[in-house]
Amino acid sequence: MQLSIPESDKLALLGTLKIANLAFQKTYPGDKPDRQPVHTVYGGANLFKADTCFRMGEIALQHFHTYAPDSNILAAALCWESTTPSEIIYHKIIYKLQTEPVEDFRIDFEDGFGNRPDEEEDATAIAAAIELAKGMAASTISPFIGIRIKPFTEDLKQRSVRTLDLFLTTLLQHTNGVLPANFVVMLPKVTIPEQVSTLVRFFEVLEKVHELEPGTLKMETMVEATQIIMDDEGRNPLMRIIRASEGRCIAAHFGTYDYTASCGITAKYQTMAHPVCDFAHHMTKVALGGTGIFLSDGATNVIPVALHKGDYLNYAQLEENREHVHQAWRTGYNHTMHSLINGFYQGWDLNPAQLPMRYAATYHFFLSNYEEALFRLKTFVERAAISTLTKDIFDDAATGQGLLNFFLKAINCGAVTEEEVVATGLTMEEIRTRSFFRILEGRRKGASLEM
Hints:
α3 packs across α4, α13 (370-389) packs across α14 (397-413) and α13 packs parallel to α17 (436-450). This protein is globular. α6 links the parallel β3 and β4. It has 17 helices and 8 strands. The protein has an 8-stranded parallel β-sheet, covered by helices on one side. The chain has helices at 7-27, 52-67, 71-77, 86-99, 118-138, 157-174, 193-209, 238-244, 256-262, 275-288, 315-341, 355-368, 370-389, 397-413, 418-421, 428-433, 436-450; strands at 39-44, 104-108, 144-148, 183-187, 219-223, 249-254, 294-296, 347-349. The longest helix has 27 residues, at 315-341.
């Protein structure tokens, strides 16, 4: 067999390509196997208490029982087909609201709090930090939590930094220097990379003063202005904004109402279903796809609350209440399903009454796709196993990770159990590694030992 390319030339050219390939892989490592919450609940900082998440669960459960006392009423309200496992979903929603009603909570000093006198915001920042410390001690906070400060615009940057400093300083004083698990700072209305890089510099100061490990403080950005989709040179600046975070930005959240307003959409038509939102979503996914940055959709502002209040309502009023709530449920459910179908596995909730539909849509989405995803991952695992046994190179681990991530997301939110994923051919130990690459490595080692 005769070859024409000299070995030295081949090694030199492939060596150069290796540098470029590795640089690309570093920028686009693929989807993270880490848990991503299915939602973020935003609540005004002035209202936050140590047991806020627990109380939201109680309110949500009472609301759900009132307007869907059984699975048949839920199915009818959401127009589910007869093949939908409505009873399974119904009981999963109840269990979720009883055990982990809020997955992620953001103590809000921006839109949910408003512009108030400095003395009032100072006092609120201190009080909210103390309540968070109490919640940490009592284990009553959500598994993901953080604060949303004001934007780093010229008129609000001083106030934003002061709130950040007061909140974190107070919190760390009351927790002996310990942050909650999965704590994050949300920076809203980002338009230029310099706003993000400035926040990073403040993080470094705070970490040094409070003796935190460098890189401890994480952030999220918001996509809520047209300029973050396309800048003054006609480019999408999202990757430059992410790079400006120097590895600290973990997620990008869409701001439905600020974004639609920035597009000139009048208030009546500012909804998650507006076409300008889908455009922004797709631009965001194109810009950040494969980076491992979590993406979150926004919120519906249709709150499922009763029209008529009071303890002595007549039958007609009760029926009007139920129909009004069910209509709002359908709106929220359809918005969430639209997000999920378009690859946004997280969204915002603004009120406890929205939580049941968040989980109704999420569980319906995962369970309706379960059988097909199970078959695909099982087939993929078998292909990987054959490659391992024959010592072939199996370089499609990224696709395997994508399939595995579907089940990891389903497990994390309570849609399926780990035991149900064993049907894919993976063991419980392999599933818990959360990494398809590690699964392949483990199987290769096992195959080598058997030889």
